Amino acid sequence: MDKRKFLKTTMIASTGLATAPSIILSACTSTNKKKDEEPNAEEENTDITTPTVATFTLPKLNYAYDAFTDTVDAMTMEIHYSKHHQGYVNKLNKALAENPIQGKSIDEILKNDNLPEGVRNNGGGHFNHSLFWDILTPGGSMSENFKSLIDQNFNSMDAFKNELADAGKKRFGSGWAWLCQDADKKLFITSTPNQDNPLMTVAEKQGHPILGIDVWEHAYYLKYQNKRGDYLNNIMNIINWEKVEGKLL
Asked: Whole-prediction pTM value?
């Protein structure tokens, strides 16, 4: 064979062998990349479609711990909020993970029959305290319309405050005093033990809570010791009645 023809044939063959692996490698790389992308897409779809249990968080306080030192000392406020209420939130989330009641607000959860103990106790603790902090926001005098509503339902402002304080004083052990609306939107006062509330089917009288006063010892003992009555009388002075009225149905 002509020497020049032989060299030309060898070079063509050599070039073909050199380019083939690069094509194969490119195909492999493309295939691998696609495989890498697909699981991520599947994971995203799974996250979107898989139902999740509601997770509750500690609500933000709209005032400092020392906002009401004449009525409740700063240390009690801090421990009450950051330890006791946070503890209820943590335990509620754990209880819901073990007994999922999905896609519901805390109000709706607490209206269920036969609540698991952990959900009842800690869900009540979360709802009750969230309402309590909200109605203690500084300021907010009682409107004439709300005063008229109080007079209609309790005859006078003094009678209303005395009945509310008595509900807390007479609650044996730990619990709450409540101002609520019934199914006919009439106001009534009641109390519940422990962390129960009038939303629950176990309540002596069910209704829509618009004001709740904590009468657990952790709410007042550092300042008042065993004088629960003094605490109840004084706390009336820091209730934001605008907030309370805003919760009416």
From this structure: 0.79
